[in-house]
Structure formats: C-alpha cells, structure tokens
Design brief:
The chain is an all-alpha fold. It has a single domain (about 5-234), classed as Phosphate transport system protein phou homolog 2, domain 2 (Methane Monooxygenase Hydroxylase, Chain G, domain 1), CATH 1.20.58.220. It has 7 helices and no strands.
C-alpha cells in the first residue's frame, strides 16, 4: 500500500468514528427527550440532523474518491466497501433519532402522556447496542460485533410487548389515542435503530473476518419465529 493511500484510509477511519460519535449523541439526547417528553431536547436533535446528513455525504464522496484514484484491492477495498455501508447505516440512525425526537415534541403537548417502563428499557438497550458497536468499530473487535447482533432479539421482544401494551391502552382509554400512537411510533423507530445497528455489526464482521453472516442470521431468526408460532398454536 502506498503511503498516500494509507493516509487516506487513516483519515477515513477518523471520519467514520467522528460520525459515529455524533450519531450516538443524537440517539442519547433523543432517548432522553422521549422519556421526559422534553421539547427542548427534541428540537436539539431535529436541528442537528442536517450536520449528520452532510457528514454522510462528505464521507461517501471521500470513499468514492479513494476508489477512483487508488483502485485499492484486498483488505483496503473491503474496508472502503464496509465504510460506505456503515456510513449509510449511521446516517439512517441519525434520521431515526430525529423521528424519535419529533414524537417527543408531539408528546410534550399531550397532557395524558405517560411513558411505559418498556420504552425506557428499550431506549437503554438500543443505546447500549450502538455504543458497543462503535467500540467494536474502533477496536476492530469481531466478538463485540457478534454480541451486538445477538442483542437485537431482546429489542424485538420488547417492541412486541410495547405493541401489546399500546393496543391494550387504546382499548381501555381511547381518549389517549394520539399519545399512545406517538409512543408506538417511538418504539418502532427504536426497533429499527437496533436493526440498523445490527447491520453495522454484520458489516464489521465482514470487514474483520471476511465473513458475510447476514443471511445466516436471517435464516436463524426465521426458524426461531416459526418454532415460536408452532408452540403458540399448541
């Protein structure tokens, strides 16, 4: 590898870590905003999303420039491909954090808004997943990335419980429909952030070990869902 290409890749690593830190902060503040129904915190996240969007565009242009000028191969090529995908997933998490903040803004205007404990737990787990994923990125730690993938099932289970609780709440208190729907949306966005974080972890495993595991995980989850369905029917 030429010294110039090495410098470009080192700079790319710093930029993706910086973007990850900004996205993690956005999610942290959005989670606080939804739990506290805090309009001020919510606006902070919404207004900061444009910066994350611009970072994603700059990162993509940087990756494409390296591909065009240096034509990297082997591990360097794998790193740039993984970076492009991680970059896109991080930007999407930033968008979802802004959507959660929008739900918090709406809830701040609802006098009947009561945030279920499950949503608080879910927000904590999703934040922990993202933090662990970014640590895995910095340390190139495949085992930590595998742990992030495994944690996604816990978030899915909490989201299903949230759905049941919200449906029951709507049936018992239809006058609180608007607030309950905002909470359900927030739960769905958190679940999608967990999915995006899992995508990043899978890309890290590809980057570190050269293994593509996303289809293996999808098949395992499908088998588990079918088995659970059969058990419920019995």
């Amino acid at each position: 590898m030429s010294q110039l290409l090495q410098r470009e890749i080192d700079r790319l690593k710093k930029h993706i870590v910086s973007l990850g830190a900004d996205v993690e902060e956005s999610l942290r503040v959005a989670a606080r905003a939804i739990v506290a129904c805090d309009a001020v915190l919510a606006r902070t996240v919404i207004e900061g999303d444009a910066k994350i969007d611009q970072q994603e565009v700059d990162m993509e242009e940087e990756c494409l420039k390296i591909l065009a000028l240096h034509q990297p191969v082997a591990g360097d090529l794998r790193f740039i491909i993984a970076t492009l995908k991680i970059n896109n997933d991080l930007e999407r998490i930033g968008d979802l954090a802004a959507h959660i903040a929008e739900r918090a803004l709406a809830l701040s205007r609802e006098s009947a808004a009561t945030v279920p404990a499950e949503l608080v737990t879910m927000a904590d787990k999703v934040r922990e997943m993202l933090a662990k994923c970014l640590d895995a990125l910095i340390n190139m730690d495949a085992e930590a990335a595998f742990a992030v993938c495994a944690a996604d099932d816990d978030v899915d289970a909490i989201h299903r419980e949230m759905y049941r609780k919200i449906k029951d709440g709507i049936r018992k208190s239809p006058e609180n429909l608007d607030a309950l729907l905002q909470l359900l949306s927030a739960s769905r966005y958190l679940e999608r952030i967990a999915d995006q974080t899992t995508n990043i972890a899978e890309d890290l495993i590809y980057l570190i070990k050269g293994d593509i595991i996303r289809h293996k995980l999808a098949n395992r989850r499908l088998f588990e869902e079918e088995a659970e369905s059969m058990n419920n029917e019995q």
